[in-house]
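Sample intake sheet
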Amino acid sequence: MNKKLWLLPLLSLPCAAMAAPGYQVPPIGVDLYYIPQTKLEATDAFSGLTADDDGDGFGARITAPLANTGLRFNAEYQSSKLSDSDIDVDQLRIGGSWMTPGPVRFGAVGEYIDLTLDANGNGKSELTGFGVHGRVEVDLPPMLSLYGQVGYVNLDDNGTVDGVEFTVGGLLQLNRQFGVFADYRESDLEDENSNKLNISDARVGVRLLFGPGVY
């Protein structure tokens, strides 16, 4: 497990403080999820890593709205292990977003990305950079929400690796405190020599809500 995992609860502390009495802040969402399938396709251009493999893993993410501004703080960490190649795929993402109000919402997302591919002694690659995305969310009463996101990712590991990334998913909010969700994210990246890196994750999990208006 990547040591960066400790950052996620630390980053949630200022958000929890904002939810104290006296602040009018929408609920903070904490997602805990299982990744039944992570799929990786890479060539030896990425620090000696060559793989066409899949595996599973776990992750967590936090979404903290900032008052009623439409702004949100986002943080995510997940870790997967591929079955045959024994590669660990770890991702840390920290950023923010802005969404319009209402039952149909549009907005933009920006995030810092740290992606580590570790073959446990047979090669390691740490790619860092950013992602910018457009996002749409649709509430379907009484309990279902659908969301989609598409954008551009730019990472660096002794050379630029960039391309398109998209996410689609849905959330079933069972009550004010608890929901379940499923989504799929795929990053289709390429370097200047046309070497490809494709990572996709299918994720299922629970959402816990905290803050004013929940209880």
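Comment: The two ends are 34 Å apart (CA to CA). DSSP finds one helix and ten strands in the chain.
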